[in-house]
TrEMBL record:
Organism lineage: Bacteria, Bacillati, Actinomycetota, Actinomycetes, Propionibacteriales
Name of this chain's protein: O-acetyl-ADP-ribose deacetylase (Regulator of RNase III), contains Macro domain
PANTHER family named in the record: GANGLIOSIDE INDUCED DIFFERENTIATION ASSOCIATED PROTEIN 2-RELATED, MACRO DOMAIN-CONTAINING PROTEIN
Source organism of this protein record: Tessaracoccus oleiagri
Pfam families hit by this protein: Macro
PROSITE patterns per record: MACRO (PS51154)
Domain Macro: 1-169
NCBIfam families: PRK00431.1-6
Length: 169
């Protein structure tokens, strides 16, 4: 994917006007903290209902799957489970797989725009600079047809760090 299609965005992932928002979910897919909590709060109970219906066994680390977005502006939530660095899961290929698999799901859905948070960079404790590099490298290497990819962060320092990595890509 052309790096020009990746846009750093300061803001809340639940407010993004895109076809698909990516959730930093956990294996159980029954809600959690951080991005996951925010998406379930803003999306409403339809998101959890669809998680239970479509993913009775949850999702493996590094995998991705979609549900309805409920009350969010997006059409779909693409849930993906990053490696829990804080718990000792440090295989970077699993983190890269999250971005690759989420973009594959987006292509299957025909999504034209997608918003990612920095998977694993919060509660799961992946070092932020490397989390940004993994995100950008994997999105750039993807054959995805998605036209616009927002990389969303809550603070200006992180957005500036994303911008830096994009400039060097
Ligand atoms: P993980 O459990 O995969 O680490 P988190 O949800 O804890 O996921 O955090 C992932 C990243 O998303 C962190 O950098 C965190 O600061 C950021 N984040 C948390 N809430 C939001 C939100 N509502 N919108 C955008 N980014 C968010």
């Amino acid at each position: 994917m052309d790096v020009q299609r990746i846009i750093p965005v300061l803001g809340d992932i639940t407010k993004q006007d895109v076809d698909a928002v990516v959730n930093a979910a956990n294996n159980a897919m029954r809600g959690g903290g951080g991005v996951d909590g925010a998406i379930h709060r803003a999306g409403g109970p339809a998101v959890l209902d669809d998680c239970i219906r479509r993913f009775p066994q949850g999702l493996a680390t590094g995998d991705a799957g979609w549900t309805t977005a409920g009350n969010l502006p997006a059409k779909w939530v693409i849930h993906t489970v990053g490696p829990n660095h804080a718990a000792g899961q440090r295989d970077r290929r699993l983190l890269e797989s999250c971005y690759r698999r989420a973009l594959e799901e987006a292509d299957e859905l025909g999504a034209r725009s997608i918003a990612f948070p920095l998977i694993s960079a919060g509660i799961y404790g992946w070092p932020k600079e490397d989390a940004i590099r993994a995100a950008v490298e994997t999105i750039v290497a993807s054959p995805s047809q998605v036209g616009r990819v927002a990389l969303v962060a809550l603070d200006e320092a992180t957005v500036a760090a994303i911008r830096e990595v994009l400039l060097g890509s």
